[in-house]
Amino acid sequence: MKIAMVGSGYVGLVSGACFADFGHEVVCIDKDASKIDLLEAGVMPIFEPGLEALVETNVKAGRLSFTTDLAEGIRGAAAVFVAVGTPSRRGDGHADLSFVYAVAREVRENLEQDTVVVTKSTVPVGTGDEVERIISETGSRHRVSVVSNPEFLREGAAIGDFKRPDRIVIGAEDEFGREVMRQVYRPLFLNESPMLFVSRRSSELIKYAANAFLATKITFINEMADLCEKVGANVQDVSRGIGMDNRICPKFLHAGPGYGGSCFPKDTLALLKTAEDYASPVRIVEAVVAVNESRKRAMGRKVLDTIGGLEGARGKKVALLGLTFKPNTDDMRDSPAIAIAQTLTDAGVTVAAYDPEGMEQARPLMPLVEMCTSPYDAIRDADAVAIVTEWDAFRALDFNRVKELAKAPVLVDLRNIYRPEEVRAAGFAYSSIGRD
Ligand code: UDX
Fold first, then answer.
1. CATH superfamily, with its number, for domain 208-290
2. In the chain, what is the straight-line distance between the N-terminal and C-terminal CA atoms, in Å?
3. Alpha carbons 372 and 374: distance in angstroms, whole number
4. Which of 77, 187, 267, 371 sits in a 20 to 30 Å window from 228, CA-based?
5. pLDDT at 39 over 90
6. Which residues does the annotation say bind NAD(+) (predicted)?
7. Atom 31 of ligand 1, nearest CA residue
8. If you ran DSSP here, which 8-state letter would residue 259 be given?
């Protein structure tokens, strides 16, 4: 089966490479010629573990190719996936759908066979209806079904998530669309990954509801962590204790500096916009967005508190370890590290930082921060060390070396990757999230 993937960004590239690995013939299309050139040369435009090898294998096998030419790319394709960006529109937080609609128009102009147009981009409820309207505008003689098929890939674990999904959600309005999607996902279907067939609008909402729910879960445990600190409880124990209830489940209950990334911040805001448009408020998500936003700065203040607070911190130095919104990615979008660094520099603190993959992306976002070549380089002469992202490389710091290099042995662990007894026994003043 031939599949066309329009948009070779994170979602399009990972999905395209995985579909090819399942034996389909896949063409990844992108307007950005420099991106296609890179891909043809075997260079990945994003950092994702395992992706480069997967692309290489499938290109060699002749199942995966790249082009800037949409007309050529979609020729003969049984399914055309739309995986272009839907960023937050400046000013109002609505998802910007201009790229999706532009693709719909281009597909309409170039269609030469019956096809299923599948929206993989995260799009607000009703977008599929509009895509269908655009495509049928000129009365094509070909049969087109517009289907919604949201992705649930986590950065850093995207290939595994694609190949072994908890579920595949298909929002289709007719049997033609459903049947083609069964063929597309047949290899996964045979692996017994459940496929959920629903209406297109339900499918579109599932994506937003899932992300908003996960963001809520994280924000809930983050506020519990604050309460734990006040009442002398341990948030990891509380998390374990509630997570053992099957109805709650232990995942996404790790307290930290607040969620970031390319999905949760954008999708929660877009959901609120939809809720507003339909005069059906989702107050719990409003609270989640506000709490998460203020948490990031609060984390900066937590670090400040260890070096004399707002008043006493001026002129001191903090080492930030980890800048990306989570490990195993180079993605800095809405990373809590940005607000933490800003809070520190606003207070006159010198900030030095190290991240295994995110430095290049981080540099323009935090121009006042000195970027270092290793964790120890950042720690030199620091009055406090703060772990912001839980990269494995920070899980076994050489405490003796840290003490020798730093001005004072102060460790703020915003991801709870160390055991308090252990760090204190090594002679550090140690603070973490939601525990003594
Ligand atoms: C998320 C969804 O998981 C995925 O299904 C969707 O398709 C896109 O958005 P991603 O943004 O890649 O994926 O990262 P994820 O692993 O979900 O983490 C998001 C943020 O939440 C990170 O900042 C992470 O540090 C934070 N987080 C996650 C917590 O603070 N605690 C947790 O328990 C889990």
1. N-(1-d-carboxylethyl)-l-norvaline Dehydrogenase; domain 2 (1.10.1040.10)
2. 57
3. 6
4. 267
5. yes
6. 30, 35, 86, 122, 155, 266, 333
7. 254
8. -
Residue 245 scores a pLDDT above 90: yes
Domain 296-432 has CATH 1.10.10.10: no
CA nearest neighbour of 223 among 211, 238, 213, 212:
238
pLDDT at 47 over 80: yes
| Strand 144-148 versus strand 115-119 pairing type | parallel
The beta strands (E) that lie in 149-295 are given as 168-171, 195-198
Q: Is position 197 annotated in a ligand binding site? A: no
321 Cα–ligand 1 center, Å: 19
β-bridge partners, 5:
28, 81
Of all residues in the chain, the percent with pLDDT exceeding 90 is: 93
Distance (Å) from CA 261 to ligand 1 centroid: 7
Domains 208-290 and 296-432 are alike in CATH topology: no
> Can 263 be counted among the known catalytic residues?
yes
For the cut 80, the answer to whether the pLDDT of residue 27 exceeds it is yes
Domain regions of the chain by residue span: 2-198, 208-290, 296-432
Neighbour order of strands in the sheet with 115-119: 64-67, 25-29, 2-6, 79-82, 115-119, 144-148, 168-171, 195-198
pLDDT of 255-312, one tens digit each? 999 999 989 999 999 999 999 999 999 999 999 999 999 999 999 999 999 999 999 9
61: tokens are 């096998």
The minimum-distance atom of ligand 1 relative to the CA of 253 is: 33
Active site residue: 18, 28, 228, 263, which one? 263
Among protein residues, the one whose CA lies closest to atom 21 of ligand 1: 259
Q: What is the number of alpha carbons within 13 Å of residue 190 lying toward its C-beta? A: 5
Q: Rounded distance, CA 177 to CA 172, Å?
A: 6
Q: H-helix or E-strand containing 360?
A: helix 359-362
| Structural element, H or E, at residue 148 | strand 144-148
Q: Can you tell me the distance from the alpha carbon of 206 to that of 189, in angstroms, rounded to the nearest whole number? A: 20
CATH class of 2-198: alpha beta
* Residues with a CB atom less than 6 Å from ligand 1: 151-155, 211, 214, 218, 252-254, 256, 259-264, 325-326
ipTM confidence score: 0.96
Our separate counts of H helices and E strands in the chain read: 19, 14
Residue 141 to residues 32, 107, 109, 114, 135, Cα–Cα distance (Å): 31, 14, 12, 9, 11
